[in-house]
Amino acid sequence: MKRTRALALLLGLTISGSALAAPHDRHDDHRHDRDRRHAHHDKGPHRGPPAHARAYGHDYHRGDRYRGDGYVVDYRRYHLAPPPRGHEWRRDGDKYLMVAVATGIIASVIAATN
């Protein structure tokens, strides 16, 4: 009788422990992610784009390749230095760019004032 009770008690404890155990985390339970999906967008007031993105046109640098659709400008009209052979002045947004015709490499960048 003692043996039967001990066996029943041991069996009951073993079964109840596995019944109350938490499920294994398989990282596929996405039910609670609905509210957190876009939480990173709600971190305070929006300040707008960074300063370099606010400027009209692109942020060009000497040595970059120019792939824009800016138009060729008359350098005399805008009081720019004459470009060397194989180069031309282009205007893109608020910048004048001296660009090599053959390669598209930017040789000089000047901010437009008008």
UniProtKB/TrEMBL annotation:
<feature type="signal peptide">
    <location>
        <begin position="1"/>
        <end position="21"/>
    </location>
</feature>
<keyword id="KW-0732">Signal</keyword>
<keyword id="KW-0812">Transmembrane</keyword>
<keyword id="KW-0472">Membrane</keyword>
<protein>
    <recommendedName>
        <fullName>RcnB family protein</fullName>
    </recommendedName>
</protein>
<feature type="compositionally biased region" description="Basic residues">
    <location>
        <begin position="33"/>
        <end position="46"/>
    </location>
</feature>
<keyword id="KW-1133">Transmembrane helix</keyword>
<dbReference type="InterPro" id="IPR024572">
    <property type="entry name" value="RcnB"/>
</dbReference>
<dbReference type="Pfam" id="PF11776">
    <property type="entry name" value="RcnB"/>
</dbReference>
<feature type="transmembrane region" description="Helical">
    <location>
        <begin position="96"/>
        <end position="113"/>
    </location>
</feature>
<feature type="region of interest" description="Disordered">
    <location>
        <begin position="21"/>
        <end position="62"/>
    </location>
</feature>
<feature type="compositionally biased region" description="Basic and acidic residues">
    <location>
        <begin position="23"/>
        <end position="32"/>
    </location>
</feature>
